Amino acid sequence: MRRLSPLPVAALTAAAALAASGVASAHAGLASTSPRKGSTVASLPNAVYLTFGGQVARVLSVKVIRRGANTNYATRAGLDPRNVNRVKATLRRVGPRGVYTVLWKVRVADGHIQTGRFSFRTRRPG
Ligand SMILES: [Cu+2]
After folding, report:
1. How far apart are CA 48 and CA 95, in angstroms?
2. β-sheet bridge partners, residue 90
3. Which of 101, 102, 91 is nearest to 126 (CA)?
4. Which end of the chain is least crowded, N or C, by CB within 10 Å?
5. Domains assigned to the chain
6. Distance 11 CA to ligand 1 centre (A)
7. Which residues surround ligand 1, an ion (CB under 5 A)?
8. C-alpha 105: how far from its chain's center?
9. How far apart are the CA of 26 and the centre of ligand 1, in A?
10. What's the 6 CA to ligand 1 centre distance in angstroms?
11. CA of 111 to the centre of ligand 1 (A)
């Protein structure tokens, strides 16, 4: 019979809280995006860029989903060869006018995984 006593559970919780606070202070988050969060652009760009405050170790996924549709407009995502802090996701060349949400997941240099999302709008198809 093995049962966790309340003391180790409390200790584990404290350790987890410490680890979580370490996450918040250790790595640099998303600094800027192109298109910008909440912006309106003429039409769907060729690529979406996410620039972080520090080095990105690995791009785990980037999806660009149009509101009301279930289509991923991102065709390929990876590190921008010109900037280790930047992720580049190339897009299908055309998309209808609408709101596009970028959902991203990366591993940063300290090993932590970060996720997020933002949206932008297109004024016309293209
Ligand atoms: Cu971190």
Report:
1. 14
2. 47, 76
3. 91
4. N
5. 28-122 (2.60.40.1220)
6. 22
7. 26-27, 110, 112
8. 4
9. 5
10. 29
11. 6
Query: In the numeric block, which tokens belong to residue 126?
Result: 């293209």
Q: From ligand 1's centre to the CA of 77, what distance in Å?
A: 21
Question: What string of DSSP letters covers 17-47?
Answer: HHHHHHHHHHS--EEEEESPTT-EESS--SE
In this structure, the dihedral spanned by the alpha carbons of residues 109, 110, 114 and 118, taken in order and rounded to 10 degrees, is: -50
For residue 95, give both structure tokens.
Answer: 């998309």
- Ligand 1 centroid – CA 12 distance (Å): 20
pLDDT digits (tens, 9 = 90+) for 103-120: 999 999 999 999 999 999
Which tens digits make up the pLDDT trace of 51-87?
Answer: 999 999 999 999 999 999 989 999 999 999 999 999 9
CA 52 to centroid of ligand 1, rounded, Å: 12
